[in-house]
Amino acid sequence: MTIRLVLAGCGNMGYAMLSGWLKSAKLEPQAVFVVEPNAELRQRAEHLGCRTAAEASAIPANAVPDLVVIAVKPQVIREVTAQYKRFGDGRTSFLSIAAGTPVATFEEILGELAPVIRCMPNTPAAIGKGMMVVFSNPLVSDDVRRFVAELLSASGVVTAIDDEGLMDAVTAVSGSGPAYVFHFIEALTVAAEKAGLPAETAKLLALQTVFGAASLAAEADEEPGVLRQQVTSPNGTTAAALGVLMGGDRLTKLVTEAVEAARLRSIELGK
Ligand SMILES: NC(=O)C1=CN([C@@H]2O[C@H](COP(=O)(O)OP(=O)(O)OC[C@H]3O[C@@H](n4cnc5c(N)ncnc54)[C@H](O)[C@@H]3O)[C@@H](O)[C@H]2O)C=CC1
Ligand SMILES: O=C(O)[C@@H]1CCC=N1
């Protein structure tokens, strides 16, 4: 079968996206060629039915994929992208999910004909609940834009931006964001245990509360601030807790500081 998509890097994010694409049947597994040096990770892709290899040189010489997805760490992005230069004649489009690395880096390595899309996904993509933000260079055709949007929609919600400069902020909010929420679950679990709940119960309550609250915020017509007020009885327990979190805008300031640290690191990774 023709190779439609090459995935370079089948680590946490590459695998999360690939499994979503295959599960939704947007892509036949035999049409995907996965390049991953780690044998164990390669096996995961084989179990999904994909063809795999440890090196890009093993991709059949006559292959002209529609899309090459670059899903390696920013630190090795230049060296890895250079291995796909032979697909830079304009017939193949490139999709990078690397934090920080600008489209110009790919244009510089692949040449002036390469259509390049930059995408910032997040790990909930593994269960079809990701947030994917895309930015494309002008060479990306409407057909490829549609194909990529359809593919990515199997991983969750897709939105496009036309100012690449915002990608560092996107990375800091939705790319890294799941980690902030996971940490909040951890913190609520610790607090629950300190309040006397058994470990299992503490974990269940923390997790289900975050899940339920996020689901309600997504489904309800009211803004999160209104939903918060609906929980908060005057002089009640929630007001006591929010006094700690919101006093002096404590949590907002802390989260803003965290997002800014991530944004600056994204800028640094792009250099
Ligand atoms: N983990 C996350 O939540 C998110 C990650 N990203 C981006 O995704 C990219 C990958 O991140 P992770 O999946 O977390 O890292 P990871 O380390 O889990 O995956 C990277 C994979 O690339 C493989 N690799 C190394 N050299 C290679 C080569 N020459 N050819 C093919 N594969 C090679 C590694 O063996 C590894 O499995 C990064 O650029 C990161 O910025 C973007 C959004 C979210
Ligand atoms: O931590 C990182 O650099 C990557 C990018 C966004 C999420 N993980």
Automatic annotation (TrEMBL):
It catalyses: L-proline + NAD(+) = (S)-1-pyrroline-5-carboxylate + NADH + 2 H(+); L-proline + NADP(+) = (S)-1-pyrroline-5-carboxylate + NADPH + 2 H(+). It is an enzyme of class 1 (oxidoreductase). The lineage of its organism: Bacteria, Pseudomonadati, Pseudomonadota, Alphaproteobacteria, Hyphomicrobiales. Keywords: Amino-acid biosynthesis, Cytoplasm, NADP, Oxidoreductase, Proline biosynthesis. It is found in: Cytoplasm. NADP(+) binds at residues 71-74. GO terms for cellular component: cytoplasm. Gene3D superfamilies: NAD(P)-binding Rossmann-like Domain, ProC C-terminal domain-like. Residues 164-269 form the Pyrroline-5-carboxylate reductase dimerisation domain. Residues 7-89 form the Pyrroline-5-carboxylate reductase catalytic N-terminal domain. It comes from the Bacteria. Its main location: cytoplasm. Its EC number is 1.5.1.2. The keyword Transferase does not apply. One of its GO terms (molecular function) is pyrroline-5-carboxylate reductase activity. The keyword Magnesium does not apply. InterPro entries: 6-PGluconate_DH-like_C_sf, NAD(P)-bd_dom_sf, P5C_Rdtase_cat_N, P5CR_dimer, Pyrroline-COOH_reductase. Pathway: Amino-acid biosynthesis; L-proline biosynthesis; L-proline from L-glutamate 5-semialdehyde: step 1/1. Belongs to the pyrroline-5-carboxylate reductase family. Catalyzes the reduction of 1-pyrroline-5-carboxylate (PCA) to L-proline. GO terms for biological process: L-proline biosynthetic process. This is Pyrroline-5-carboxylate reductase.
